[in-house]
Write a structure and sequence with these properties.
Blueprint lengths: L1 H22 L8 H24 L3 H6 L1 H16 L4 E4 L2 E7 L2 E3 L1 H23 L7 H17 L3 H17 L4 H21 L1 H13 L8 H13 L24 H32 L7 H24 L18 H18 L31
Antiparallel strand pairs: 1-2, 2-3
Helix pairs in contact: 1-2, 1-11, 2-13, 4-5, 4-6, 5-6, 5-7, 5-12, 5-13, 6-7, 7-12, 10-11, 11-12, 12-13
Length: 385
Amino acid sequence: MRRLFIGLVCVLIGVGVQMVHSASLTSTPGRSEAVFLNRHLTFLAISVVCGFAASMVPASFLKKNSTRLLIAFVLLLVAVLIPGIGTRVNGAQRWLRLSGLSIQPSELGRIIMPIVAAKTLIDIRSASGFSLRTLPRTLLPLLMVLPLVVIEPDLGATVFLAAGYVTALFIGGWPLRYFIGCTVLALPAAVSLLALKSYQMKRITGFMAAWQDLSQAPWQIRQSLMSLGSGGLEGTGIGGGWQKLSYLPEANTDFVFAVIGEELGLSGTLAVVIVWMGVFLTGRAVMRPLRRDSFEWILGSTLVIQIVLQALANVAVVTAMVPPKGVPHPFISYGGTNLLVNVVAVGMVVGLSRRRPVVPGSEPEATGFPRDTECRDNTAMPEPV
């Protein structure tokens, strides 16, 4: 099952390489197509190496250094906001540029925040159990990270980081009453956050208008739906799409799924969805032998769910099921930090699944022979002399 999980991820990566090259074509062919493909392959090579290294990291190392990882993550988020260090693009200051490569620190939180959540749950459960006194300790990482991401501003990353942390808490058995209470308290802040940004409210109103009058929908939604619709059942063929030629924005990143719909048709998009279903099922299956209260199971299951949820969010945006927001498609979109984080997450799932904590009471008995030893011809075993 572990090999099948890795194989399905490799299928998505292969589709991504092909579609990044195809979606990078422009109306004036030149060197730009090769530039995007070469950069993507470079990112992919770095990601595979880091993913393999992550699969070798023991869970004990992650638990021991969870606090250090959180501190380093917060420092990176602070560095992004410092003028001259962080890079501002289209009004948002979210990137660090190192030797020609752009790194988005908020993406690293998709791995670090679940690690911190799993470690916090394990510590609280083993110490005193869940109570109101442990509530500040549980929520402190979110209170440290989310305001820094909101300032960038990056509402999408804020939602995903909070979702990953909350998913780990839910899987780890955090009491439901605390979820309800924290949701009620956080709801006014979330509403006011949307109201402060006019362009975010415009996205929501445009999304609502798209279901009544498509001509009033945002430009990227209209072009995305046209791409999906023009593909039909079998598509126009690889490289044969027209919408990516200066019509569909972010064709090789956020809206690459629309390019798949145009060039591979409904059959291609359904095939991608089926592969994602396989990734989810096999990812959960490789974690099944672990104890439900173990650090490994909480973290591994959270990472699998988080990756699949990101793919689901991307498909929902492309198909106008939710308001438009920049969400790359894991393993398929033109990649940088997001590709690196998702491949590392897969490597961590593989590494965590190798650890099988012993269930209490299942240890072999201290007898003269191993528990699973028996005669193949069903004859009685000789008594030890």
